[in-house]
Amino acid sequence: MTTEAPVKSPSTARFLSQLDMTAPPLEVRNLHVEFHTTSGEAHAVNGMNFVLSQGETRAILGESGSGKSVTAQAIMGILDSPPAKITHGEILYRGVDLLKLSDEDRRRVRANHIAMIFQDALSALNPVFTVGFQLGELFRKHRGMSRQASKAKAIELLDMVKIPAAKQRVNDFPHQFSGGMRQRVMIAMALALEPEILIADEPTTALDVTVQAQVMGLLSELQREHNMSLILITHDMGVVADVADSISVMYAGRVVEDAPVADIYARPAHPYTKALLESIPRVDLKGQELAVIKGLPPVLTNIPPGCAFHPRCRYAKDNCKVPPEPPHYDVDVNRVAACHYWREVIES
Amino acid sequence: MTDTPSKFGEVVLETKDLRKHYPLTQGIVFKKQVGAVRAVDGVNIQLRRGETLGVVGESGCGKSTLARLLVGLEQPTDGSIMLKGKDLSKVSSRDMRSVRRNIQMVMQDPYTSLNPRMTVGDIIGEPFDIHPEVVPKKGRIARVRELIDLVGLNADHINRYPHQFSGGQRQRIGIARALALNPEIIVADEPVSALDVSIQAQVVNLLERLQDEFGLAYIFIAHDLSVVRHIADRVAVMYLGKVVETGNEDEIYEHTTHPYSQALLSAVPVPDPALRGLRDQIILEGDVPSPANPPSGCRFRTRCWKAQEICAQEEPPLMVRPGSEHPSACHFAEERQVVGAVS
């Protein structure tokens, strides 16, 4: 296949030789990201940890401001810095710390090894170029293909994501596509160079439920076919329950609970996870008040000391209010929770 | 209709064959109309005192246009809106003000629907400038403070500006503004969809508490079917400017008969991993057709798996079909259990 014959420079070869294929596809260790703002340093990510295994779908669940998108951008190396600054941590792709790579190698990792889908497909696509041109660009830049060959690849990709009449649509501009179609184009673009890892940042939030079902179905089908590992960033607990294998729940820039999907829904071990699940309207509780999480998410320039969730937590005791923050307690195999009182939470 | 009149009061709001068509024109000097976007195309709804009518549907189905028609932000092309028995198209412009007082709106986006240059007190008190008879001038500040308190904010923040509040708090300010004139009906257009899950629940609870306290009737427009199920007494499902199915909450969610409602319900992800793969999920093909050129006959037929010839020729009226107790606009209406559709 033509895609298998990229122009390999000596530096690419060196980069590829560093990769340890026995290491997990992605591991994030103690990642810290700060943003410099006029009102002080905003601590967007404060010690993020997770491991993504081969073929796994990991959901990163959190509300706005929890640091989930910033984590994804740090992995991709597309944070705007300044104001953003990675102050700590490692992002290991097959054992290689991405943060230590040269810009040139970083660029090679993007799209070739790790790709990303954004929430708003309309603003992620360039309005003045045809969809075919933008898809083909990947092959021209990364694979050194000709215009004609890259266009043929673009049509192939549009076919793969089930866009009807791909031959004609390849010459259309992004505005000529509907929202669901645009998200398909984004998926096609992300999968073009057959990456190992796909990061999907709220891929269906802007879409209607019926279209969301189409797009999520397509995404998991393609994941299986290409044996990719998927990071799904979302705030929708329904979507997570439908597709994820494991979940990292984020609060104030930190993972508060990390567990296989079935465990977390059945018996949450962190008060925040528990409260989130309870605030979903349920049929059997119609007519009653919805359970609420009192208060507001913390301001990132002024995160409460100790456990960041303590001002809103009904289990909080005095030791939650003072540093250090609660460590990741082992709840079970493959399962951690950052709460001193996880036993109490899981049993209630 | 299959309402239960006993539980709720008299009908406060009713639309009859309500239509809103936006003309599509061609040419600049000699404009001529080449068609129309049929945003709302013959909608009949009824709302009783103290009742919540949920309106659901995908984007472009006309639910926001319906909301704007009800509060008078748009003039209907055809059909009528009866507010407490008065036909709004026949009310003189002088009387219109006092009639309109009874129906207020909560907007979707709390970030753009509050004027950033006005204080919270001014925003909530502004309705009194238009309706000075509601509260005497002297009592206004006290009334505004009372409203702020009512929606669960601190009345001492009366002089703050919108940017000093979070999204959930801003939505509370929007609700306080809607309540200022003691309306009987509130039209809420996606009031919680811009909010985080944990904040959504707070606002939904507030809306329910206010309803109990003041006997408000709500038109609750949303695309989140589980929130609608929680709050609504009756539900109307819209598709391309028409109501395709209506009934009480249980009839729509448990005994749905219209294929579109079934597909919509089945597409909602259920927050329970144990049900993965067990659900009867109907995945629709394609997108919603353009409302400027809707399909003939039944508008859903282009995406419907049941469609037959009759669907292209004859538009199915919204009526009670055999084997079911609530109206559905499908020739082949048939109950289908969409397992665990919305929990």
UniProtKB/TrEMBL annotation, chain A:
Domain of life: Bacteria
Gene3D superfamilies for this protein: P-loop containing nucleotide triphosphate hydrolases
GO MF entries: ATP binding
SMART domains, alphabetized: AAA
Keyword line: ATP-binding, Cell membrane, Membrane, Nucleotide-binding, Transport
Coarse class of the protein's main subcellular location: membrane
InterPro entries from the UniProt entry: AAA+_ATPase, ABC_Ni/Peptide_Import, ABC_transporter-like_ATP-bd, ABC_transporter-like_CS, Oligopep_ABC_C, P-loop_NTPase
SUPFAM superfamilies attached to this UniProt entry: P-loop containing nucleoside triphosphate hydrolases
Topological category with respect to the lipid bilayer: Peripheral membrane protein
Protein location: Cell membrane
Domain called ABC transporter: residue spans: 28-277
Family as reported in the entry's similarity comment: Belongs to the ABC transporter superfamily.
Name of this chain's protein: ABC transporter ATP-binding protein
Organism, scientific name: Intrasporangium calvum
Taxonomic lineage: Bacteria, Bacillati, Actinomycetota, Actinomycetes, Micrococcales
UniProtKB/TrEMBL annotation, chain B:
Gene Ontology molecular function, alphabetical: ATP binding
The keyword Magnesium appears for this protein: no
Transmembrane segments: none
Keywords attached to this entry: ATP-binding, Nucleotide-binding, Transport
Domain ABC transporter: 13-265
Family (UniProt): Belongs to the ABC transporter superfamily.
PANTHER family documented for this protein: D,D-DIPEPTIDE TRANSPORT ATP-BINDING PROTEIN DDPF-RELATED, TRANSPORT ATP-BINDING PROTEIN
Name recorded for this polypeptide: Dipeptide ABC transporter ATP-binding protein
Organism, as annotated: Intrasporangium calvum
Lineage summary: Bacteria, Bacillati, Actinomycetota, Actinomycetes, Micrococcales
